[in-house]
Amino acid sequence: MQLVSSQIETYLANSSMIRRMFEAGIELRKKYGNDAVCDFSLGNPDLTPPQAVIDKMQALVAEVAKPAGLGYMPNAGYADARADLAAYLVKEQESPLTANHLVLTVGAAGGLNAFFRAILTPGEEVICPAPYFVEYGFYAGNYGGVLKPVKSIAPAFHLDLAGIEAAITEKTRAIIINSPNNPTGVIYSKEELVSLAAILEKATARYGRPIYLISDEPYRFLAFDGATVPAMLPLYPYSVVIGSFSKNLALAGERIGYVAVNPQMPDCQQLVAAVTLTNRILGYVNAPCIGQRLMQAALGTSADATAYISRRRKMAQVLTEAGIEFTLPMGTFYFFPKVPGTVSDKQFVEMLTEQCILAVPGSGFGYPGYIRLALCVDEKFIDTARPGFIKAAAKARGN
Known about the structure:
- The protein is α/β, with parallel strands linked by helices.
- Helix content is 42%, strand content 13%.
- It folds into 2 domains: 137 residues, Aspartate Aminotransferase, domain 1; 229 residues, Type I PLP-dependent aspartate aminotransferase-like (Major domain) (Aspartate Aminotransferase, domain 2, 3-Layer(aba) Sandwich).
- The chain is globular and about 60 Å long.
- It has a 7-stranded mixed β-sheet with strand order 2-8-7-6-5-3-4, with helices on both faces. It has a 3-stranded antiparallel β-sheet with strand order 9-12-11.
């Protein structure tokens, strides 16, 4: 007897490898103890929120005690919260954004779902560089869209612009990029983004309707060695920025994000109205009221991310000692090293699991032959994992 849809049945059978490794970690901890398991599988930020968040949380006690203190607000979010966010984004995005260009959402995931619901007709395609955040395919598929990956150019994982241009057809509705990128840590240069925008300008003119460029930016705050993340909105009129405060304010569980529609976009208010509507009818209704106030109070601040600098350096040393090839990430808290020897990424993950090290196969991100390591753990676990990486890599090479 079939209890769920055939689509969800398929999704369940091919469920996220990240979550599978998370569950494997539970079993390993039961067997070997918490301190023996080095879990690099889940990108769950382990930072403390900035003081502005903590202070505002305490102040909110008095505010929510008032009548309707936790009540509804406009579906796009509090007007003053959107105005403050717009003023903050004007500098970051180098664009004259106002509250009328923003919709506050239930995290970036809610923003992506609301946006895809607003623009996609079943059968239309969303192009993305691979490797990519695994949920993109589900988000597009929720509304009949089809994710169409284009492999990035290893080892640095910059955009294959020729490949993207060749992938565009009359079915293409959007391209989504993520910079700094999960899982590779690459930051796309302004030059390659200008080239991408030119490709989309031509394709939009050729097919007579806009191909949207979605910039998914939850890791914008975490760029290393003085690297900068180029602003997308000035480069292409049909661009949209979708962001989140899960990482920079350590608010992952509070679910607060936004969709920022380019003011240069013709008839941009129609798109804002559409996303506001889909935000409501998908059942989100509005972004969490407490999250909006915490975000508003903490704009311009960030959780202390210096721990990631040290962890990045230490993980690079461990991988080098193990003879595992990698490109040093320019941003985010991930590494995406190449699998040593001739084994598959899933086989290498199994070898690491034997050493009580949890990683995620690159095939889960649309790029086999690599693994993802998340640095959301105490630095002591990188030290603990050192001999395990060395043994697993040697086994993979047949030594």
